[in-house]
Amino acid sequence: MGGYAVDPWQSVRRTLGVAACGWLAAMLTALASYLALRWTWVPISVGVVLCLAFVVALMLLHRAAWIALLSAVPGLFILVGAVQYAPELALEVRGVRESVVIVADEAASTGGDNHRYTLRTADGAELTERLTYNGSAWAPEVGERLDVIRDPEGVVPMEQADEVDATGRLGGLGAGLVAWTLMAVLAGWRGHVRRRKGRTDSLLLSL
């Protein structure tokens, strides 16, 4: 069966456009995180929608779905990095480090996995802010001593000190974007080949 004439420059433009969409999704999510430090659900919602949009664009570019499915892995790094970088950077810059002991846990009375810990500092003062932890795996227990970093302005939620790593979040974000860019290049090339062969009627898991 003969091939089809496909403009290679059009394929290049499509590839660059999809790669740019990935970078734009990350930047917009990070911007939403910076502007909505107090409401973490805002950048999470924005990031999920934009990441899904990139996955769909990658699938359409490739005319197959397996690269798009694989892109969900670096997409998770991008989402976590873009959402967490701004608040963790704020804690590193202006946060106050405290050595505390857990004196109470609301989840103990409700039986749930959404923990809200009451903390007491080394000098016996009880913090008004509660440390939250969702899930049962590796959850701190009452009586356990922790180092936490809290925002004196009360904008960014308190976090355990060993979990605050803005540089690591930025590194994960960058690694995810590099992976997305390479995937866009591969998808653009494979999509160009599929279109040239006339294989444009399926979005199945085909090579």
From TrEMBL:
Membrane-crossing segments per the record: 16-35, 41-61, 170-189
This protein's UniProt keywords: Membrane, Transmembrane, Transmembrane helix
Superkingdom in the source lineage: Bacteria
Protein name per UniProt: Uncharacterized protein
Protein source organism: Streptomyces pilosus
